[in-house]
Design the sequence.
């Protein structure tokens, strides 16, 4: 498996606090079947003032430690950038690492409020040559009320990154149902751990992959845990959900926000 969202780097944000914890997280990831991991510390003005200059050296220290300890986890540079109006300019300057120097980067939206003019902002990013990956949309408190915003963003070619623990119900029933509805809808989605520690939020994804395989099929599981992350790391072209490369394995239910939206669209309302 490939994990494109982790807070394994020590001393940079609310993830690992020291090198030994980072190493313990790496051991857990490898034991769970993760072979490649993007290191994506928070970037948020006034809270986590990270950039390329702070992230890259810590990644190199951790990767060297893993080599010496023969822990077979390959690390890639990245960041989880909180929404800010000057993000396109900062990305163009190279201040904020994208995922493995690709055009893709992790974008964290506000959890409590709907971002104004979100589509316009995404189009600005794309015009600048970048593709935002929306992190944990199922955990946004406004996602169930305004699912059409996330559907439109996904239809613009921006992947939605679901959290493995959300699919397992560890962030509550609402997040679990919302995550499942995105998969049911055939949107452009993949899964990452968003790991923060060796315990409560550990870098484990195999249980979620088994769940996806049992509910939506093995091909969907391979796509969400391996193939789409591989494409992103290699700066490739993602499948186009609008051309039905990502067909839902089960019919949508109308109980979730996305389900209600699609029900209304089908009814012509």
Sequence:
């Amino acid at each position: 498996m490939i994990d494109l969202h982790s807070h394994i780097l020590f001393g940079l944000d609310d993830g690992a606090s020291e090198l030994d914890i980072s190493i313990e997280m790496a051991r857990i990831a490898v034991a769970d079947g993760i072979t490649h991991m993007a290191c994506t510390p928070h970037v948020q003005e006034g809270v986590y003032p990270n950039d390329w200059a702070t992230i890259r050296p810590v990644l190199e220290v951790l990767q060297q430690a893993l080599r010496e300890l023969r822990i077979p986890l390959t690390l890639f540079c990245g960041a989880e950038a909180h929404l800010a109006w000057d993000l396109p300019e900062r990305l163009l300057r190279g201040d904020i690492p994208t995922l493995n120097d690709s055009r893709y980067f992790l974008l964290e939206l506000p959890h409590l409020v709907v971002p104004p003019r979100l589509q316009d902002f995404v189009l600005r990013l794309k015009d600048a040559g970048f593709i935002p990956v929306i992190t944990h949309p199922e955990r946004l408190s406004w996602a169930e009320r305004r699912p059409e915003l996330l559907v439109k963003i996904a239809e613009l070619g921006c992947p939605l990154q679901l959290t493995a623990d959300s699919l397992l119900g560890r962030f509550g029933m609402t997040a679990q149902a919302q995550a499942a509805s995105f998969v049911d809808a055939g949107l452009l989605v993949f899964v990452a751990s968003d790991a923060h520690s060796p315990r409560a939020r550990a870098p484990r994804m195999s249980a979620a992959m088994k769940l996806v395989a049992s509910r939506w099929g093995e091909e969907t599981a391979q796509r969400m845990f391996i193939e789409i992350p591989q494409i992103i790391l290699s700066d490739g072209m993602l499948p186009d959900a609008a051309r039905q490369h990502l067909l839902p394995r089960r019919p949508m239910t109308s109980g979730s926000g996305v389900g209600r939206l699609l029900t209304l669209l089908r009814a012509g309302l």
User: Anything to note?
Assistant: The first strand starts at residue 2 and ends at 3.
